[in-house]
Specification:
heterodimer, A: 199 residues, 19% strand, globular, B: 247 residues, Ubiquitin-like (UB roll), Alpha-Beta Plaits, 3-stranded antiparallel sheet, 24% helix
Chain lengths: 199, 247
Amino acid sequence: MTTLATKRTGRKADKAEPAVSSKIRLATAWLGGCSGCHMSFLDLDEKLIDLAEVVDLVYSPIADVKEFPDHVDVTLVEGAVANVDHLELAEQIRQRSKLVVSFGDCAVTGNVTSLRNKFPLEDLLTKVYHEGPGAVPRGGEYDKIVPALIPRVLPLHQVIEVDAFIPGCPPDPERIWAAVSALLAGEPVVLPEKMRMFG
Amino acid sequence: MAVITMTINDELVSGVEGQSLLSLIREQGIELPTLCHLEGLEARGGCRLCLVEMQSTQRLLPACTTTAQEGMSIQTHSERLVRYRRMILELLFAERNHVCAVCVMNGRCELQDEAAKIGMDHVRYDYLVPELPMDATHDKFAIDHNRCILCTRCVSVCDSVEGAHTWDVMGRGVNSRVITDLNQPWGSSRSCTSCGKCVQVCPTGALANKGSTVAEMVKRHDFLQWILDGREKKQWVMHNGGSEGRR
């Protein structure tokens, strides 16, 4: 199993290295989800203070960073891959992160975001927008402003390689802490049975 | 009754002649996952989760439908079996639209439980996303085929315990579906007695009480042994069972 220890070889062991910051570079990303996983992450409450002592949050919906940075150690990804922007960000995340974690049921299974997979894209946009009240909004075509939807919502591991999975809708703070503390300690994420449940 | 001796996971154990492998394995305190099996209903060997490996031939046999034999030697948790069990669960999740977060049985579902137990943290197969209907024509109950795993406990309990045989299966393979009467809306079924046994034994959120929303449905299995003991032994003793004790 992939761990931070195996992916950070040389960096963690070499104590003599005068690191700019010895903190672990953590990122969280928000694809096609409701942000409930991030809300649950914030419910770590006072543990966030402990976390802030060992990590730098280098990219997140709760940090004002526009570009996904290079050399990220761990990235938690909430949400399924639903549009072309998600596809692009997922690729960047994979290229620039040592460990990528599917964070919550939408990233792990597609979950509620993927309920639209039953409908062909055309029908979906017609039902929701073209037949609805008011002017037809953008989104049917890729106009570089509103990202085009991809035909089928995909779980993250069907788009990029994923190193660990945190199921739950949302994963409760205990689950998140169990997974994150394992990742930061360079250990594989092995959640106990009660913390592995979908839903 | 004659006693038989056999080997389970390299340990000698004894059981009673005619006993199923599944019951003998569970008597030893070994946990073996099952989804179609339910104590009191006829064993079917449908879900394949209880497959065990014959030491001599490496053959895989469902423990629920196999009778324990003198001298038999089996493994219950070989690397291959654990791998297959996870594959089976992943295939079940991929085959229909099991979205746990918005299911009436979230938190008490046997499929969800088995996945967590076995450590299935994601599904490696493409989700088939089939177009499946719901039938909410019955006054009290509804069926959501998106959640059905075709365990056929409903068919079995309706036939052998209630005696109505309202439920059956139509179609083949991936297109199989449980049906009421001759695929008529459940609400118009003349054979259904509205007893609700099918709903109580259903392991997932496929069969549920009307009006229950996400994570609200609780199922009871204890009625089954109650009825069977009463019928066969003239004893009425309540056992515990069902989804009440889960999570």
